[in-house]
Amino acid sequence: MNIADSAKIRKDVRLDELGDGKIVIKHNAAIGERSIIAANESVVIGEFAMLAPNVYICDTDHGYEDILTPPMCQPLRKPRPIVLGNNCWVGINCVILASVGKGSVIGANSVVTKDIPDYCVAVGQPAKCVKRYNFNNKLWEKVK
Asked: Domain range for residue 28?
C-alpha cells in the first residue's frame, strides 16, 4: 500500500489489497467515510481526487459461471487495473468498477462499469457521459 502523507482518509474506510493487489493513493486525495477500496491487481487514486462517503471501488469480482458452486467459492475473475485520474470527483454512494479520467465528475449513486474519459460528467446505472468540457469554449457542454 502506498498512501501519500497529504492524503486525507476519513473514518471507517476499508483498504483491501487482495493477493498481489496494490492500492496507491496520491497527494492530496480525499477518501470519504465508509468507503471501500479493494485491489486484486491495482487501484490508483490520483492527486486531488475526491471521493464522497460510501464509495466502493474494486478491480475484480467473483466468478459465477459454475451454477453448482456458490459464487463465494469460485475463483475471482481476472482483475482490471483501475485509475481515478487527478482532480476527479466521485459523488456519494457510487460504485466504481472501471477507470475515471482526470477532471471528471461522477454523479451521486452512479455505477461506473466502463472507463470514463477525461473531463466528463457521468451519471446513472450504468454511468454514461452527459457533459464534456470544451477547452475551446471553456464550457461544460451536453453530450449528444
From this structure: 2-142
Total domains in the chain come to 1
Examine the residue annotation and report whether 62 is marked as an active-site residue of this protein.
yes
From the candidates 8, 14, 27, 62, give the one annotated as an active-site residue.
62
Give the pLDDT confidence of 80-115 residue by residue, as tens digits. 999 999 999 999 999 999 999 999 999 999 999 999
Cell numbers for 111, please give them. Answer: 455505477
Q: What is the CATH number of the domain that holds 46?
A: 2.160.10.10
Task: Tell me the pTM.
Answer: 0.93
